[in-house]
Amino acid sequence: DKYIKEMLNGPPQACYEILRIQPSTFSYFCEVLRKGALRTNNIMVEEQVEMFLYIVGKHFDQRSICDHFQHSLETVNRHCRRVMRAVAKIGKHLIYPSNDDDLPPHIKFNEKYYPWFKDCVGAIDGTHVSTWIPAEKIVSFKGRKSTVTQNVLCACNFNMEFTFVYSGWEGTANDSRVFLDAVTRPEVNFPWLIQGPLVYDGVLGGNCLWIPYMDLQHTIVYDGMLSNPTGYKELFNYRHSSIRNVIERYFGLLKARFPILKLMPCYKPVKQHIMVVACCVVYNFICR
Predict the structure, then answer these.
(1) Which of 35, 94, 137, 152 could bond to 167 as cystine, CB 3.0-4.6 Å?
(2) What is the rounded distance in angstroms from the CA atom of residue 97 to the CA atom of residue 195?
(3) What counts of helices (H) and strands (E) characterise the chain?
(4) For position 282, what pLDDT does the model report?
């Protein structure tokens, strides 16, 4: 209790370096969780959330958390699990497509994109997140780089927010397979089929997706120099590749803020899937 008060009332930079979140945002985040599903249970909500952020943001193992907060391993594990589930539960209020009809400034004031992408609402792509699985299943989770990963499908808008997250697929699964599974399973609640076009590279969709021309490369290079695109197909592929990079940048920011996504502890598979969603929820909360 005393340590948390000193951190929240101290220099904002100190709280940010420790928890990767500003003091005011941390206090508001705890208040939202308190009004939701998270209860005190002999340990104040702020301390529970701080233990969770230590694990995902600083990649401390739970035994180090036990020593720091002077709690038993069972207590730390139980409360971190409660925070993770509470954070994932409020995800339906934080991870959703925007209903704003205004054209994003990222497109509206950029002549490279406007008016060609004026109906675009975001980008969608898959990324590989570290995972831990039993030895008998390791083959199906080994990706192209021979690392054990899970394939996570995400969509984002142009305001640094994730609008859809679908985790749990093995690392060997390609993006097309994950995407088709997401749109064909009603319980996943894939929202983009009626929302508007997305910029995507790697899957084939219907009228809701814009994909590049597959018979051309995105940019043309001669003797190490980038040449100007010739023809409308090369120009579209070039601008398509440029605008879809927004989700690659968001993936980089997400993994930099939460190192646990690069080296997942030996949690149960279900807990690992929820952990990915929880990190995206915290990311959206901070951005907003």
Answers:
(1) 152
(2) 8
(3) 10, 7
(4) 94
Using alpha carbons, select from 99, 93, 6, 89 the residue that is nearest to residue 50: 6
Query: 198 — alpha (psi -120 to 50), left (phi > 0) or beta?
Result: beta
Residue 215 binned pLDDT confidence (cut-offs 50, 70, 90): low
DSSP state of 148: B
CA 52, CA 87: separation in Å to the nearest integer? 10
pTM confidence score: 0.85
Beta bridge partners of 226: 221
CB distance 258 to 129 below 8 Å: no
Give the three-class secondary structure for 256.
helix
> For all residues of the chain together, what is the average pLDDT?
81
- CB-facing half-sphere around the CA of 4: CA atoms within 13 A: 17
Return phi, psi of residue 82, to 5°: -65, -45
